[in-house]
Amino acid sequence: MTQINVRVDGASYTDDVEPRTLLVHYLREQLGKVGTVVGCDTSNCGACTVHLDGQAVKSCTVFAVQADGCQVTTIEGVATGEGESATLHPVQRAFHEMHGLQCGFCTPGMIMASIDLLKENPDPSDEEVREGIEGNLCRCTGYQNIVRAVRQAAAEMSGKAADDPQAEPAAVDTAAADHVAAQA
Amino acid sequence: MTAVEDPTSAVDLPPAKEVGQARRRKEDARLITGKTTWTDNMVLPGMLHLAVLRSPVAHGRITHLDVSAAKERPNVVAVYTGRDLAEEQGSLPCAWPVTPDMVNPGHPSIAVEQINHVGEAVAIVVARSRTAAADALEAIDVDYEPLPVVLDMEQAVQEGSPLVHDSTTSNTSYHFVFDAGEAGTGGDTEQAFADAEVTVSRRFVQQRLIPAFMEPRSVVVQPSGDSYTMWSATQIPHILRVMAAMVTGIPEHKLRVIAPDVGGGFGGKLQVNPEEILCLLIARRLGKPVKWTETRGESLMTAHHGRDQVQFIDVAADRDGTVRGLRVRLLADMGAYLRLITPGVPALGAFMFPGIYKFPAYRFECDGVFTNKVPTDAYRGAGRPEATFAIERIMDELAVELDMDPLELRRKNWINTEEFPFTTVAGLEYDSGDYHQATEQALELLGYDELRAEQKRRRDSNDPVQLGIGFSTFTEMCGLAPSRVLGSLAFGAGGWEQASIRMLPTGKVEVVTGSTPHGQGHETAWSQIVADELGVPFEDVEVLHGDTAISSRGLDTYGSRSLVVGGTAVVKAAEKVVEKARVIAAHLLEANADDLEFTGGKFTVRGTPGAGVGIQEVALAIFAAHDYPEGVEPTIDAEATFDPENFSFPHGTHICAMEIDTETGFAKIRKYACVDDVGTIVNPLIVEGQVHGGLAQGIAQAMYEEAIYDAEGNLTTGSFVDYLVPAASDLPHFDTGNTVHVATSNPLGAKGVGEAGCIASTPAVVNAALDAVRHLGVTDIRMPLTPERVWRAIHAGGDGGDRAAQGSNAYGGARTTESGIQEAAQ
Ligand code: FES
Ligand code: FES
User: Cβ(A38) to ligand 1 under 6 A?
Assistant: First the structure.
């Protein structure tokens, strides 16, 4: 057992961990931070993505002991404030607005990876978003609304409205909207 | 959908309808903040962890199994083998004996003597921690006596093939036939072929796929006295409860099953899993809570797979393109055992091979074949993608044979909009649609003329990058299912769905549904429906699901049935609430119930302006129950069970434009456009999301995914390194649209959308690839369209020879052939 000191989502923890314990298992099993999930065992899916000292990492590829002395931010720590009155991070908000999630299992990792992507590239094109999140797998959405969400968040974070028609909410760029209106 | 009443009173305009609005989802709040309830999050006091030792051999006998050393490992509580559990494990259920003489050898949850596929459970360690359990697995000593491995269906059905199961006389589980002539729904198929001017025959391979839901399966069982609560990452808590009770002998009323947040399923969690039964048995033995969560490797290797058919399909037609007959013979790989609906998947597809075309004659035959692989079962579309692929591919082949435009051939043969309702040669009554309109819109979305012109330019200039355009004009049967029809197909359950509505004293509404979402957004869509039906705010509705103690009756979520069947049950329950409330409101308003109108959540007396009471006020009044009519029960809560009379038939036109680099074989989707008709759209955001996700999976079948076994029966695609679930960068932008022709089988008019994209897209992609390179002598390319396969097809002609067509597939993988480019080119 090795003792580590970590700050996770703003709180300090001191714990004994086995040297082989992965950061994701430490977060889930020792800290109860179950918002971060495990989707694979080959570091392909990105479901476990967190920020380690501000950088996105797949927390299944990091040992807990490597996080000693570090700041970890998980999906549970990206909104500001607590409980129902918390203010969502623009990326969280955009995933909701653009329907960038279905089952939501990939979502914590997707959001953490997207926040990191926007830090590197505040105004990515569709292609750049697609390449930027290629380490994160989603089986539900087909990615299109995730791409929209990230671009919408980029626009919001840089203070300008999304000017790309692709970044509009899903409902208005398809024939669906017309027909639905006609139905009602 | 239900007709909207004319808003007669200008003062009391009903609020804008919720149905049709792109409401943002209620589910998202917890999912985007990590406040989730995945089964693996569950921690209970004293909870023990299970790890499963899995067979590395595909076919063999256990000759030696010693677990004593594992029992001595630190923090190990118990170790069980198949022998320990043999008396009580029973057989996993198969609910669909498709023929009366279907052979089902039984399916133990843990192997006792014989192993029939790699990954089968051999022993289970129970320990105080996940890691202690996993560590102790290596202390188990086991020997196997290998048996000949059966992998290739076409070999497995030959006389003299080694058998998967000693207890059977052949590897054929069943032979299922549908003959339209015999059924009285069509003419004589043999005669149609004998008389035909043109016939085209093809052999298509539907490779084995893995559902690959993102949340690995996980089970927690908590015993309490003689009762058990099971949490499971399942699509089917209700079905699981019944089945688990029958398998283990735990009385049904002593077993509660909860599906908390579930991370995708796609049919892959439509199962009674060995590990669910094993967790129950072990929790019962130990009297302690237990948990099992699979690794991704276990998931890919042991959760059921999908597809896996060899399809022989023949079409007969006149020279002018009029189709005369269709004949299909399938070999469907069951894998080693029959799971919940393993044999039924190809049978479900049987009725969809004629697609949208007016075939006068049709015959379908299918052999279910045992092999030493993990069982197949439902995967998004379940039988219908296979059927759609075959018919949409052969229509293109027929067009080539007749030198006709593939769209022209389709137009000539499809059902015209004025012909609905149309009874097909398979005996199904298609409800509504307009194939022409959907096609015209899709062509426009794609920018068809421009792309055809570009294709010609590239072809004329012999450009190394060639362009192709492929169509899929499809329909599917959804809204599973009319119970009587299921009964006639020997399915072991009904197809109804249940809902109840509880009107709380403060006017808030609880909707309990038997559908079990795992990403589809039921909480949002059901709230929209109820908001309209009861005239209450969207926010005032809470949807409860996925717990057999809360929602006691239900048949869960699969087969694009939730909205069509479950949503209709919600509508019916709401109608009952309104009728019950009407009686109370009449009493409160001192009016005759027949004189009351109900709009916008309010009862008003016809001809008496001003007098009215809201349904939410009625809820409070009946809670107090101080003043209500004699002979009426003091509640306006209601429940309803809806059993549809027919399926619904979404349809659509999908068009793929594909670029193929003839020098490298690399295929890239240039543009993808589709127009789907899914009937009434309750929430366009959710509908579009479902289409996107389906497209991704259908395109993945065409281009990326295949579960491959080696000659020894090892799954070589057992991780996300080798099993290519596409990433964002592997997929194109989708241009999607809708037409709306309401379903006639339910008051919502909804047809179902969960599977549409997945069913339609695969043949469009393959047809596009072939259209790009057919002029180079290519006749077929096996899925997935890897650069190697495409390159070989271009350079060798035909289907690229054995290396391209069979070299790495589920059957052919066991059959290494020498014939490469040269032989194939001859
Ligand atoms: S769990 Fe970390 S990448 Fe899959
Ligand atoms: S939303 Fe289900 S995996 Fe991404």
Answer: yes
Do B31 and A107 count as a contact with CB atoms less than 8 A apart? yes
Q: Which residues line ligand 2 (CB under 6 A)?
A: A 101-107, 138-141; B 214, 263-264, 519
Percent of residues, chain B, with pLDDT higher than 70: 95
* Ligand 2 atom with least separation from CA of B263: 2
- Put simply, the answer to whether B697 touches A39 (Cβ < 8 Å) is no
What confidence tens digit (pLDDT) does each residue in B601-659 have?
Answer: 999 999 888 889 999 999 999 999 999 999 999 999 999 999 999 999 999 999 999 99
Q: Are B652 and B676 in contact (CB under 8 A)?
A: yes
> What's the mean pLDDT in B245-257?
98
Mean pLDDT of B741-752: 95
Question: Is B739 at the interface with chain A, CB within 8 A?
Answer: yes
Q: Tell how strand B306-317 and strand B198-209 pair up.
A: antiparallel
* Chain A residues within an 8 Å CB radius of B213: 103, 105, 139
Among B100, B98, B163, B518, smallest CA distance to B342 is for B98
- Domain ranges, ordered by start, for chain B: 9-35+496-642, 42-147+212-302, 432-474+649-807
Residue B40 · residue B293 · CB < 8 Å: yes
Hey, how many other C-beta atoms are within 10 angstroms of the C-beta on B297? 18
**B303-325: per-residue pLDDT in tens?**
999 999 999 999 999 999 999 99
Ligand nearest to the CA of A47: 1
**Do B133 and B50 meet the contact criterion of CB atoms below 8 Å apart?**
yes
Matching CATH number, B432-474+649-807, of 3.30.365.10, 3.40.50.150, 3.40.50.2300, 2.60.40.10 = 3.30.365.10
CATH topology of domain A2-77: Ubiquitin-like (UB roll) (3.10.20)
Q: What is the pLDDT of residue A82?
A: 82
Written out in words, the top-level CATH class of the domain with range B42-147+212-302 is: alpha beta
* Cα–Cα distance for residue pair A141/A138, rounded to 1 Å: 7
Q: Which of B567, B516, B597 is nearest to B270 (CA)?
A: B516
A120 to chain B, any CB pair closer than 8 A? The answer is: no
Residue among A99, A144, A172 whose CB faces B25 most closely: A99
Within a 13 Å sphere around the CA of B511, how many CA atoms are in the beta-carbon half? Answer: 34
Please name the member of A36, A181, A183 whose beta carbon is closest to the beta carbon of B34: A36
- B163, B385, B151, B182: which is closest to B266 by C-alpha? B385
Residue spans of the domains in chain A: they are 2-77, 83-171
Residue B820 CA, ligand 2 centroid: distance in Å:
41
This model of the complex carries an ipTM of 0.94
DSSP B56-76: S-SSEEEEEEE-HHHHTSTTE
B450 φψ region: left (φ > 0), alpha (ψ -120 to 50), beta (else): alpha
Question: Is A97 in contact with B24 (CB distance < 8 Å)?
Answer: yes
Q: Is the CB of residue A106 less than 8 Å away from at least one CB of chain B?
A: yes
B237 touches chain A (CB under 8 A): no
- Domain A83-171 is of which CATH architecture? Orthogonal Bundle (1.10)
Which candidate, B491, B490, B507, B509, places its Cα nearest to that of B499? B509
Query: Between B10 and B643, where is the model more confident?
Result: B643
DSSP state of B360: S
pLDDT of res. B15: 58
Kindly give the distance from the C-alpha atom of residue A169 to the centroid of ligand 2, in angstroms, as a whole number: 18
Torsion of CA B520, B524, B529, B535, to 10 degrees: 180
A170 lines ligand 1 (CB under 6 A): no
- For A168, the closest chain B residue by CA position comes to B685
Please answer yes or no on whether A175 and B739 come within 8 Å at the CB atom. Answer: yes
List of chain B residues whose C-beta atoms are within 8 Å of the C-beta of residue A171: 22, 684-685, 688
- Specify the pLDDT at position B6: 41
